[in-house]
């Protein structure tokens, strides 16, 4: 077990971690986790789709692609006031970070002032801000930084060698270029991937290796469990073994020890026991709220019940009040009804 920050991981080393006996892997991951974080605290984010559907890309997992018939209704960019209404509700329900996602290949320059206004308004509520808008150039990344954005999300999705099985409308280097623009602008990065898309363990290790060997480890690493949506090419793919998912969380914690490791998409289909194993393995961030862009997520009140059963607390952030007796910010149980 190593606790040093490295950017020179070899795939063979990462595979050796995957192959550890399950109890030993969880022990090592939990030990590293508590060196850098309080293991009883979980960072809570809420994700809002500020522009839905109509995306020209062909990501095989995505119901927002205009190429697939998934029943997603195209919606134009929301108004700042509508975004603020959602942000206030998210804060009242216990979120400390508010993430805004738009189904764009990349934003047009004319859209940037509108997005910047949203960021400034949400930031004024005392929430951390995150955005995922597709590919950015240097100027756009700087605009977001000047608006007060804290995090930019841009996932790698999968390993370089499996990428062309999933996406054909942008290449891997374009994703890496966007991450560089984000880092150069001084924004914190939120970057992870999706597992359960038919990739092998070797390819899962390849995704984690690429993330860990970036010039700086992502500040947040979302690990998404594929949500299969009818009409997308990946609908019907064999589901990933739950223990393999936990192993992925644990290995991410070991090789990126200071990053937030987030349980993202797919939590709606995880039982309480699987989520608890993920927290033991080093996950310390979740998306909270009834929907993730266009797919379901556990009901908000249910998360607080699970937190109470596990003795977990939401990670504090300025402007968010933690209810000491039940671990729920504000009156989240009432608001979730």
Using only C-alpha atoms, the radius of gyration works out to: 19 Å
Low-confidence stretches: 318-337
Structural class: alpha/beta
Helix fraction bin:
25-40%
What's the average pLDDT?
A: 88
| Oligomeric state, counting identical vs distinct chains | single chain
Count the strands? 14
Shape: globular
Sketch the topology as an H/E string, one letter per element: HHEHEHEHEHEEHEHEHEEEHEEEH
End-to-end separation: 44 Å
How many strands, what sense, and barrel or not for the largest sheet? 10 strands, parallel
What percentage of amino acids are in beta strands? 15-25%
Helix segment count? 11
Please describe the topology of this protein.
Elements: H1 11-18, H2 22-36, E1 41-51, H3 80-92, E2 97-102, H4 112-123, E3 128-132, H5 138-147, E4 151-153, H6 172-184, E5 188-190, E6 193-195, H7 201-212, E7 220-225, H8 242-255, E8 260-263, H9 272-280, E9 285-287, E10 291-292, E11 295-296, H10 300-310, E12 313-314, E13 322-323, E14 328-329, H11 332-336
Parallel strand pairs: 1-2, 1-9, 1-12, 2-3, 3-4, 4-5, 6-7, 7-8, 8-9
Antiparallel strand pairs: 10-11, 13-14
Helix pairs in contact: 1-7, 2-8, 3-4, 4-5, 7-8
Can you tell me about this structure?
With about 325 residues, the chain is an alpha/beta fold. It contains 11 helices and 14 strands. It has helices at about 10-20, 20-35, 80-90, 110-125, 140-145, 170-185, 200-210, 240-255, 270-280, 300-310, 330-335, and strands at about 40-50, 95-100, 130, 150-155, 190, 195, 220-225, 260-265, 285, 290, 295, 315, 320-325, 330. Strands 1, 2, 3, 4, 5, 6, 7, 8, 9 and 12 form a 10-stranded parallel beta sheet that branches. Mean pLDDT is about 90; it is low at about 320-335.
